[in-house]
Amino acid sequence: MQKWLFLSFLSFVSIAATAQVTKRARDYGIKIGVIPTGKLNSITDVSGVKVGHTTLIAGDSIRTGATAILPYEGNIFQQKVPAAVFVANGFGKLAGTTQIMELGNLETPIVLTNTLNVATGIEALVSYTLKQKGNENVRSVNAVVGETNDSFLNDIRGRHLKEQDILNAIANAKAGVVEEGAVGAGTGTVCFGYKGGIGTSSRKLPQSLGGYTVGVIVQSNFGGVLQINGVNVGKELGKFDLSNQLLNNVDGSCMIIVATDAPLDSRNLERLAKRAFLGLGKTGGIASNGSGDYVIAFSTDENLRIPHNPKTTTLQQSTLHNDYTSPLFMAAIEATEEAIINSLFAAKTVTGRNGNKAEAMPIDKVISILKKYNNIK
């Protein structure tokens, strides 16, 4: 057996088991925003949404993976969901955007991975869709694959993630607790100079405002000056972009996926996506020149599904009036902010390619700073 294969056999991790328990921001008394969270404070609080990871860790230089987000369990191609994309900064390789923008719907799961494995993600989503029962005559698939560049820790040129790895992430997708931090598509990412990764959060509106849920999952890999719940933590720690020569490169990316059960059409989903990006700004992100920052938003409302083969020439759908969208906008901002912060709290120190190391955020110091400013008890 070749050395690399042996190491892969020993080190390969496929996240299909029970998620590891890690402390999140709220476990330390950090309460971001004013809207209550969902039961799990996760994108999976939106009924039907499932998340799966595949993590590749092998040898001393492979630190990458994939994360799959499914709007619901079923044939998404045959019953598409309304969706929208907001491009905050377009230095990225988000596949499938133009069709979402043109038609206003999503017809595959969303896959997140590294920059040079986007093509692999497309291949996997095409294979997944063509093999589904009912899709025997399908001849076109709009695969949606987002990415961030994990080359600081990962041998990205090796393109080690294979089609089956991504299919495994889709197959592993489940409701319930979502594992966060250095897992899946977040295995090799860096955020604010610390180890970033996958993070998630949700908000549940009171019944008087519709009772809707907004859930967010992020792949954090960007820079700026870290702020947590309004406190300039990055400056206090003395580690922030542009603070010294080592941190002058603020380039990176962030993928933000927003799910809601509110009956929003693609137009209002785009408005929701734009607000979610404000949550990234509240964490201190600056959307630098080389940062690919994207938001994909979709609605799981079954009454808004778009049939691939419609039986009538018109669709009868009820959507939320513009005047009642503001609480959802606020929910998306808060959930995005907290999802990014959760990605930092959950991440552990990772050493990878060329011995490069991304240290975990020093939580004890962060808590001390927040207490200094009376941000938490």
Explain what the structure shows.
The chain is of the alpha+beta class and 377 residues long. 25% of the residues lie in helices and 22% in strands. The chain is built from eight helices and 15 strands. The strands form four sheets. Strands 3, 4, 9, 10, 11, 12 and 13 form a seven-stranded mixed β-sheet that branches. A four-stranded mixed β-sheet has the order 1-2-5-6. The N terminus is likely disordered.
Rg is 20 Å
The helicity comes to 10-25%
Oligomer: single chain
Structural class: alpha+beta
Portion in beta strands:
15-25%
Overall 3D form: globular
How far do the termini sit from each other? 55 Å
Low-confidence sequence ranges: 1-20
Order of helices and strands: HEEEHEEHEHEEEEHEHEEHEEH
Number of helices: 8
Number of strands: 15
Q: What summary fits the major beta sheet? A: 7 strands, mixed
How would you state the average pLDDT, rounded?
93
List keywords for this structure.
377 residues, alpha+beta, four-stranded mixed β-sheet, 15 strands, 22% strand, globular, disordered N terminus
